[in-house]
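Reviewers of the previous submission asked for a worked example of the structure-prediction workflow described in the proposal, so we include one complete record here. The input consisted solely of the amino acid sequence. No template or homolog information was supplied to the procedure at any stage.
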Amino acid sequence: MDDIREQLNKPLWIGIISFIVGLLIGLVVLGWWLWPVQWTDAGPSDLRPEFQETYLRMAIDSYTLNQDAAIAQQRIAEVGENSAEILANIAADPGTENTDSIQAFILFSGTEPSEEVAPAPEETTSLARNWLPWLCLITLLLAGALVAVFLFRNRSFSFSLPSTRKEAPPEAEYPEYTAAEEEPPLAQFMTTYQIGNDLFDDSFSIDSPAGEFLGECGVGISETIGVGDPKKVTAFEVWLFDKNDIQTVTTVLMSQNTFADDATRQRLSAKGEPVQAEPSREMVLETATLRLEARVVDMSYGSGALPPESFFDRITLELVAWPKG
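From that input alone, the workflow returned the following structure tokens.
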């Protein structure tokens, strides 16, 4: 649901949805129901051929009564370029008209009939008369197909690149993994502790490219030193949980002073493997189906009345999860 909301906030999505809504309102609501198109004051040249023929038959009747050649020529001109063909059709099929009246109308109006009588054009098919609904339907189908393709591509992209819950600090950069080196990781996270964050405890979900939950990893406070606020953190727990393994694997990342204290190091070893924190120090945690590579990207110690290098002022860790081969 969050992915759908995020996509809908993009300008391309707003444009597509606005186009579809505007098309429906403009054609269906306004064009066909509220204000349908109505043709008025059309001239004889805009009439269908059968009505143009009726118009010329009335012109023949009028000419027979008043013998006004100028008016006859004007009415023929109003019909347009099809007048000669229609007069030829009338001459071939007089109907209720007098043959002499037809010939006199043609002669005195200056219009010569064609030698060959062209067949009357067929009645316009319903598809041609109703091209607008078909155009609307085709447009909606194309818009729907575009939306479906866009959704599928973005859904595939979101599965292939798992999202992180923490933003990397500006100075930290993720390493690039190319296909030539090894397969891409399942997930990649960056987390930073800053002194004063006494509730620091970050955890991240590890999912497969298809979205299946595989496990979790995270970093939390393991040990503090001294008294008062803020807490002086002297050790962190880096852990990996695998849904296919009954045991959670933990590494205890200690300050230099804590690691050098045999008694404290021995006590914290009960929680997990002890490791001294150093810039670029790497740790590997493995379970039944997962492997977590943790790296100290950046760190600094706090200062004060406590022993030097005994508690952290700031530390940034990178966590990269892989399937265990």
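Residues 113-128, 156-172, 177-181 have pLDDT under 50 and may be disordered. We consider this example representative of the routine output the project will generate in years two and three.
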